[in-house]
Amino acid sequence: MKVPFLDLALQHRALRGEAMAALAATYDAHRFCLGKDVEDFEGNFASALGYPNALGMNSGTSPLHVACMAAGFRPGDEVIVPPFTFIASAWGVNYVGATPVFADIEEDTFNLDPAALEKAITPRTKGVVVVHLFGLPARMDEIMAIARRHGLFVIEDCAQAVGARYRGTPVGLFGDAATFSFYPTKNLGACGEGGAFVSRRPDVAAQARLIRVHGMERRYHHRIVGGNFRMDGFQGALLNVKLPHLLSWTARRRAIARSYREGIRPECAALPEAPAYGESVYHQFTLTHPRRDALREHLTARGVGTDLIYPVPLHLQPCFANLGYARGSFPAAEKAALTCLSLPMFPELTDEQVAHVVDSVNSFR
Ligand SMILES: *Cc1c(COP(=O)(O)O)cnc(C)c1O
Predict the structure, then answer these.
(1) 249 and 235: one domain?
(2) 69 vs 98, 217, 337, CA distance in Å?
(3) Best substitution site from 89, 179, 239 to test ligand 1's pocket, by max atoms within 8 Å of Cβ?
(4) pTM higher than 0.85, yes or no?
(5) How far is residue 199's CA from residue 40's CA, in Å, rounded to a whole number?
(6) Cβ contact 358:260 at 8 Å
(7) I need a surface site. Which of 61, 107, 270, 328 has the fewest CB within 10 A?
(8) How far is the CA of 263 from the centre of ligand 1 (A)?
(9) What residues contact 256, with CB distance under 8 A and at least 6 apart?
(10) How far is the CA of 123 from the centre of ligand 1 (A)?
(11) Same domain, 239 and 263
(12) How far apart are CA 7 and CA 187, in angstroms?
């Protein structure tokens, strides 16, 4: 049996008719940059997920950039980022000339360790990027208490956690700004690039709205330095087609995760942590194993697709060599990078495929 790591074709085939009609309407109305489809999506997204606002942007990296601009981070400022995440979590900090400073993760949740965050703070620390990795909320009570004590601007990178809640509150409503990605492989994926910016703070949301379109208050009058971070109309139209399915897709991801948890024997691999404060939306189902590469080969031989997410922590990436970190700087992130293995996780997996993944992991010796 073949179990691909990810197959978007099934979802896109099912929605093809509706998607083509939506795209045709956008095409015929020439709504190419922002416009009604994007505005509709912003309203639908905000109300479906419990946010006071949402700004459609042209990737998930853009709102991180915009958040760092809105925060006013400047050269000389330090912003703390976990080293085990997608590289874009750190990019915004670089784009405004500030310095990313890494703080280690918790081994069991893969998320920022509040104790490590507190230890990394210096008089130059101005903010923190909190990532809800693989769909699991980070420990927001502890993180926000530390951030408030030190006056930090908190950016929540929710790229992998759309729909997740921490103690009942949607992720993204704790910090000063929240960012989402609609890259095609995300839980809610566009057919192209897309992202969103959310803030519970009206002042920050207003600033981000200005930055999104060239800092422009009135046409050709530019109050602040901005950029072009606009979502395109086709993506807004497609996301409006997909958004109504997000709840059921998330429920299916959770059901698959439950089957993995119930089926995979604990002596065969270490399952991802499931803390009581909030259920993951399972962007990934990532287990760990000391002989990860051998397990991966075993699964490949049985037709099970897997991926290494992420094989190299940020502090060991060549692009950040100038920051002066070395192997050993962040033991938990380095261990995760060496032992993690992500299993197939997408709503269209069949029960038979899920059972085959479970059997395949359990048969590894
Ligand atoms: C996908 C992702 C991003 C960036 O989103 P793009 O849409 O690819 O620009 C940022 N942070 C995390 C954690 C991501 O997974």
Answers:
(1) no
(2) 10, 17, 30
(3) 89
(4) yes
(5) 18
(6) yes
(7) 328
(8) 31
(9) 282, 285, 345, 347, 349, 354
(10) 29
(11) no
(12) 12
User: With a 6 A CB cut-off, is 240 part of the ligand 1 pocket?
Assistant: no
| Helix or strand (DSSP H, E) at 157 | strand 153-157
Q: Does the beta carbon of 157 sit less than 6 angstroms from any atom of ligand 1?
A: yes
Residue with tokens 């981070």: 73
| Backbone phi, psi, residue 213, to 5° | -120, 70
Could you tell me which residues are beta bridge partners of residue 157? 131, 179
In the prediction, which pLDDT does 55 show? 98
Which residue, chain included where needed, has tokens 């992420």?
310
Cα–Cα distance, 225 to 325 (Å, whole number): 33
Q: 339: domain CATH number?
A: 3.90.1150.10
For residue 333, being part of any structural domain is answered with yes
Residue at which a domain ends, from 224, 244, 264: 244
pLDDT of 155 reads 99
Q: How far is the CA of 105 from the centre of ligand 1 (A)?
A: 18
Look at residue 2 and tell me if it is in a domain.
no
Question: Quick one: tokens of 8?
Answer: 């978007």
**Any ligand 1 atom below 6 A from CB of 86:** yes
